Amino acid sequence: MRRASVLVGVITVLALGMVLGCSPAAKTGMLEFRANGEDFVRQGFVSKDGWTIAFDHVYVTLTEVTAYQTSPPYDPLSGGNIESKGKISLSGTHTVDLAEGGGDADPILVGEVGNAPVGQYNAISWKMVKAKDGPSTGYSLLVDGTAAKDGQKVDFEIKVESEYGYACGEYVGDERKGILKAGETSDLEMTFHFDHIFGDADTPPDDELNVGAVGFEPFAGAASGGRLVSDMIGLESALSESDFQALVDILPTLGHVGEGHCHCDSH
Fold it and tell me: Model's pTM, two decimal places?
């Protein structure tokens, strides 16, 4: 009888181990959400019209950040809602400075969610909204920096009141992101392409990027005493009609997932 009791005990322990091993807790990991202004923001660059731009601060305010497991994959070019078999959200509203850190700094950690179900998170959405406090209060985007060309220098602070909602598919880049395994950490990235506003001297002039970009010359022309501090209302009167409209058209295109595109609704 004693040997039988021992045997029953062993079987019970093994069964319990199998149950625990298959429990939901064993099928989760940590999912990080990061924001990236790329080397354009961290290291600076030359605009399509020859202005060397360096950024001191680039504040974006993000909320309703949500990751999805979708099948079939979400197509941002078609727009519409992201249909998913599972999703997780990062709580709260977060203002981050994309220019924080040195030239080789990692993308900014916005937040993380523990106990996230394993699987492939191949879509992400977020809203860029007006900050309610901090250095960018009242604006969804604040770009603070310096531009120089041919002995001229312009300190600028460009502030954007409009709010934007982005819905994006899978990250496109040198590595895949969002593949979460049990007990491990994976990340998703919200990427912002500021060369879309100013253009890029390292890209051919007739490239679509530079054709659509405003450049920096119009902003320099709106400066007074080597300084430009303006929101979109001010820029509407300071820029030419075509340059201002180009800026309005470009701002919704800032949000990406690496090189992957997003669908954007502006408010």
Answer: 0.89
